[in-house]
# Entry
Amino acid sequence: MARDYYEILSVGRNADKEEIKRAYRRLARKYHPDVNKEPGAEDHFKEVNRAYEVLSEPETRARYDRFGESGISGSGSPGFQDMGDMGGFADIFESFFSGFAGGSGMGGQTRRRGPVRGDDLRLDLKLDFREAIFGGEKEIRINHMETCNTCEGSGAKPGTRPQTCNTCGGSGQVRRATRTPFGSFTQVSVCPSCGGQGQVIEDKCDDCSGSGQKQVKKKLKITIPPGVDSGTRLRVSGEGDSGQRSGPAGDLYVYLFVNEDAEFEREGINILSTIKISYLQAILGCHLEVQTVEGGQELAIPAGTQPGTILTLEGRGVPRLGNPVSRGDHLITVQVDIPTRISPAERDLLTKLAEVRGDRLKGGKEGLFGKLFQS
# Structure
């Protein structure tokens, strides 16, 4: 039994789009095959991707909420409002009721298969932390099916062409009359000689063996927009598999996964990092150079800064996806380094400072400063 997609992503059925996206990113990082080598991780990764594909698209999600898995198994809804979207059910219906002896209307109708759109393809692409923030061009390599140039997709050797199937006369279907106690019925099935194509290829193209397509390795340059994150999906139109019988090519979908950075962390469109200062710098204040994704920048540490204080560099975060002019902030958490050992000179100065402040010191060298002084 198929698992519930909401359960796979660990979200409620009323979860909004952003919550679903966050859950997908978290699980995609956890179960990606390049990261998680445990048995079953790859299968779970595929489940997570499938769940996100369904729940991230409002129309698909609505059909899933109403009809479950059956509502997204084909292009049409299970309400059967359009006979053309009923797939196998329509074939069965036609098979049994395609005509009857002396019958009206439904008998004698045939269908020729027309152009077929090519399959969509998927590619997982890893990006460095800064590549995801600033975007840019990226070269990728794909394997996809292209229309054979030798036969121009016909599958026939140059100078020849497919011939009308003698078995079905080009209809792609064969009929068989059956007598029953209720009358004579005509059963329609796919022609076994041409496979429903209505044509047969006697002299096949040497380059594609009659398929009309060839697998080709191809290099593409794609543009990564600024601000992408793990789970972002890019669509490259027309770079999927080529269509058959002059049908349009499918699309290539590039799923992005962003590597973690040793220095920075990302939270939405904000960047997080930490800086460590001495207790004297925290008391007196100072100016320090800190690292951002764009390089070094001076940061003012106010006097009296407390441990855990968060300082903000405005506009130094991640560009907003689709609006790169708008950027998040760089949030820097201040850590204060309290020494465990001090020199005699430092101890004397700190003791005098304590006397000036009126702070009580216990036990001389056995007190706080005494412990710092010991080595």
Observations:
- The chain has five domains: 1-83, 87-116+163-200, 117-144+206-259, 265-337, 344-373.
- The radius of gyration is 34 Å.
- The chain has nine helices and 17 strands.
- Residues 1-83 form a domain with the Helix Hairpins fold (CATH 1.10.287.110).
